[in-house]
Amino acid sequence: RSSGGTLPRAVAIEFRPAGKSDRAAILELFEVAFKAPANAADLAWKYDANPHPALSALAIEDGRALGFIGALGTRYRGETMDQQGNTVVDVMTRPDTRALGRAGMFKRLGELFRRINAEAGTLFDFGFPNERARKIEERLFGCVLAEPCAERGRRLDAPPLLGRLRRRLLRVCEGEPFGRAHEPLAQLLHARPGWRTDRSARTLAWRFSRPGFAYRTFQLLDWRGTSRGFAVVAIRERRAALVDLQLASESDGTLVDLLAAVQERLGAVAADRMVLRSPQRGLLASRLEGELAFVPEPSDTVLLMHPIADGFDFLAPGSTFDYRFADHDVF
């Protein structure tokens, strides 16, 4: 028998692109999903200040975020590639969604993420999950392993590398902004075989201005003041992570010149070795492990390729991606 009241209607879950107006709901979801305080400034850096906007996907019910897949935008740049892209970050769901019989919600959210990014012109994207997260993404989204990430380290108390800056009329500047001196190097990197994420001065200025993160930048300049390479260092768990390392030529002595200067200037930092993440194979890998005495470091991180556009061979670019720590948002 009715009491005369109206039964509340079930509120449907809405699946749509996330907007800036959803930020409060996403911050609340972050705290529930990760059991840690959310950093509003960091999310604003990722999703508002990035010079390469991207589309993220949100599942929301009655103003409460249930799931979110964030996209950190970039451009893919290489000899035969110049296109919009992104990396997957901030993947989260509310812990109680499965208990409420919504196990398929995350799969649907992933399908939305693919569709909106494909419509925006992205062909594929990538991520750097650990082994547990990799299995989940492979099962739900059809992602494919490209390779386990290679990391190589060299002790800071090892015999110093022998650079020849003066003989080559080179100098290393620390802490200077990426500007006009950097642009010729960026153009060269963007025209190199394979592909990498955008390394323009504008993108680097944004990438290494992240709130709460400390980076040291080193630029290798020739006698004209033009950049021949750069390195960016962050101290993580007693490791001096070479978050980025790029050179006009990986085959000449400037690789040694730059790394020698970085090793010398790190001096008394709270780290025992410098570590670089880069592809398993290639000239840089062989020189690091050969003449420069870098040794393999343990890593549980993998490069995972994500399908976006239907019919595109999304795995093929995984074998030519010249990645670094900087391509992983935790750095």
Averaged pLDDT? 91
| Form type | elongated
How big a fraction of the residues is strand? 25-35%
Which structural class matches the secondary elements?
A: alpha+beta
Distance between the termini: 61 Å
Described by strand count, sense and barrel closure, the largest sheet is: 7 strands, mixed
Low-confidence regions: 1-9
Helix content: 25-40%
Describe this structure in words.
- This protein has a seven-stranded mixed sheet with strand order 8-10-11-12-13-7-14, sandwiched between helices. Strands 1, 2, 3, 4 and 9 form a five-stranded antiparallel sheet that branches.
- It is elongated and about 70 Å long.
- The chain has 331 residues and is an alpha+beta fold.
- The protein is 25% helix and 30% strand.
- The protein is built from eight helices and 15 strands.
Short description:
The chain is α+β, with helices and mostly antiparallel strands. About 25% of the residues lie in helices and about 30% in strands.
Strand and helix layout:
Blueprint: E1 14-17, H1 23-34, H2 40-49, E2 57-61, E3 64-78, E4 81-93, H3 105-119, E5 124-127, H4 131-141, E6 144-148, E7 150-155, E8 171-174, H5 183-190, E9 195-197, H6 201-207, E10 216-221, E11 227-236, E12 239-247, H7 254-266, E13 273-278, H8 283-289, E14 295-296, E15 302-307
Parallel strand pairs: 12-13
Antiparallel strand pairs: 1-2, 2-3, 3-4, 3-9, 5-15, 6-15, 7-13, 7-14, 8-10, 10-11, 11-12
Characteristic key phrases:
331 residues, alpha+beta, 7-stranded mixed sheet, 5-stranded antiparallel sheet, 30% strand, disordered N terminus
